[in-house]
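User: Run a structure prediction on this.
Assistant: Running it now.
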Amino acid sequence: MFRTFAAAALAVTMATATLAAQDSLTPEEFESKLAYKTGTVQISGGMATIKLPGSFRYLDEQDSRKVLVAWGNPPEAASDVLGILVPSATSPLSEDGWAIVITYDDDGYVSDEDAKTLNFDKILSEMQEQTTETNKLREKEGFEPVMLVGWAEPPHYDAASHKLYWAKELKFGESKDHTLNYAIRILGRRGVLQLNAVSSIGQLGAVKEGTPDVLAAVEFNEGHRYADYLPGTDKAAAYGIGGLILGSAAAKAGLFKGIWLVLLASKKLVFGGLVALGALVKKFLGGNKDAAAQAS
């Protein structure tokens, strides 16, 4: 247990140091060092291709992590990020800036046989119950609770392209500003590409407008596509579309990783640099001092 606390505390400390170094730059200086890409890009060793529309630019793993840490996330949160898509018309460091974070879940082939029979109201109710249980852990660790307000966009699944998207409206603590969690999932042979829009609820219109371009832009390459799955040979996920929406993969990721994922999906919460991260450090270390002492 102590090692877990120590590792998480170390990640936060590293984030403070990294963010302090970045904080010495102006937003313009920071962004000038980012290597934006346009056109066609490959992600994760050629597993998938993005044919970027003019409305988006791409940042690779290294630059993506710089941006996410600049937003106030600890490096641990960005360790699995493959890249981010940034709207061409805005800076990720501006107040109205947002981005789509790309990760990959290798849980296996997700069957879509349940897609036609899903009850999204029931799924929402189950997710709200999960959030209530998760909040007990968050508050125990010194983090403010999260309320799942409802669907900002109900789930939609395209059986022909094997692409899924939905959006949740979240409220963190006593904040008057709600957060948008817009999720795109692209099903593949061995896992799922996860694209999560990081923005405030006020940017729902912009995110929703950009979603069709993103859905059309990202495709698995030959050999990695959904249709390439070999039953009995390739790994199959233990859940279907319903479980994917519910967050089966995230649920088994562990307490701390789950906390970082929530922060990663809330730019509005952590945008504020050293002030926001400093508060996080204080909450984390203060909330866990007694438990760490007992574990030692």
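The chain has one domain: 31-270.
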